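Task 17 of the worksheet. Students: predict the tertiary structure of the chain below and write it out as structure tokens. Keep your answer in the requested format; marks are given for formatting as well as content.
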Amino acid sequence: MANIKQLNPASSPQAAFGARLRRFREERGWTQDALAPRIGYSSQHISAVETVRKPPSLPFSRKSDQAFGTTGTADSFEREYMELRNGSLKEGFPEYVGYEGRAVELRIYNLGLIPGLLQTPDYARAVAYGAVERGSITYEQADERVAFLEQRQAALVRSQPPMMFVVMDESCLHQAVGGPEVMNAQLRHLEEMSARPNWIIQVAPFSMGERRAFDLPVNLLTMVDRSIVAYAESQGYVERETSVVAPMFTAYHQMQGEALSKAASAAKISKLRKGTL
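Model answer:
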């Protein structure tokens, strides 16, 4: 009997991908030879991905999703590939995204740019291509960022969608991204999303001044067991310690209380959109 290499999924994101691929395969009673024709890759290639001798690719991930029935789900291999590929962008962010797809409540604060989960594809592409123009990423990486964001957005579309609480600094609405047509469509999208019952979108006006609770984006997730997970760019990692998360949760609610109401925020967004025409 051939020796089976033991996998350590905690050793790297690529190892985690390989270990999960093996687990899904073995749960179905498939050998690597049996999986090969289902995804159009050789058993040797599958073995190399499982044992971290070859990195997974986007086509490989999508074919795996088709074989395992995980296409478009929060557990898709394509989603994991995007997390792996983009993991170097912000430390701790791939781990956060794993929680994001399972959260029952999301509380988001952003400034400068519309929050990613509310960005239209054209707006997201303009932001990503701006990074290309600065020379920090390639066009391929920019397109992958946009695709990764679309995967995150798709994970929120469920039979029981999470409650979404968003506070945007007023600067998000005034930052001209992609030109008038892109901004008009983006602001219209905000209006449409704000009308959904599970979305509470509020604007933190410039007049809030020094009372603004955060100086960098903050994400607070409430999980099904009511535990809270936090991710802030100022920290750069996922935080679960109650003594740290609880004050952030309190500060977020204080800021919500001073922000414009949902109705007033929608009216402000509508007024600004009409000004882009």
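Marker's comment: The mean pLDDT is 89. The beta strands are 105-110, 163-169, 199-204, 218-222, 228-232, 238-239.
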